[in-house]
Amino acid sequence: MLKGVDPILGPDLLAALRAMGHGDELAIVDANFPAARLARRLCRSDGVDAIRMLDAIAALLPLDDFGDLAAWRMATVSSADDPPAILEAFKESLARAGYKGPIGAVEREAFYRRAAEAFVIVATGEARLYGNLILRKGVIRHAH
Q1: N or C end of the chain, less CB within 10 A?
Q2: Of 97, 99, 52, which Cα lies nearest the Cα of 71?
Q3: DSSP letter string over 30-41?
Q4: Backbone phi and psi for residue 11, each to the nearest 5 degrees, phi listed first
Q5: Could you confirm whether 112 is annotated as catalytic?
Q6: How far apart are CA 119 and CA 134, in angstroms?
């Protein structure tokens, strides 16, 4: 246990977050996602929903501000313009962490390919459909 660090962030996930560099991506995925098959690095948190995990990660992970987007969701099969119910909760969580940008939509198969290239996939117990989000790590600017 550490002071100020959410206890759902276990040692493997904390190590992955710390090891990530600028531009590396992390995928937070739902219980239906084929994480074990796709992940280069997998951290499981089956008893935690995606929003709780996003809150914990976003409190520590700087999001990229070098481009227009630092967050992407899986588009619904019916249409990228038909947002899943969890989208508002993703937006609220990211806003709490200070992210002001939009959340892009990525077609399902393209999302799978992108997640497979992520630095780490965090598998949650999220039961809501399309509870999948990719985040791009930014930088921390230190004052001299």
Answers
A1: C
A2: 99
A3: -TTS-HHHH-SS
A4: -60, -35
A5: yes
A6: 11
Domains parsed from the chain with CATH numbers: 23-136 (3.40.1650.10)
Q: How confident is the model at residue 82 (pLDDT cuts 50, 70, 90)?
A: confident
The amino acid sitting at 82 is D
Catalytic: 6?
Answer: no
Distance (Å, rounded) from C-alpha 83 to C-alpha 72?
12
Q: Is 64 a catalytic residue?
A: yes
Q: Of the candidates 47, 49, 37, 70, which has an alpha carbon nearest to the alpha carbon of residue 138?
A: 70
pLDDT in tens, 55-76: 999 999 999 999 999 999 999 9
pTM above 0.85, yes or no: yes
> Exactly one of 24, 30, 64, 130 is catalytic; which is it?
64
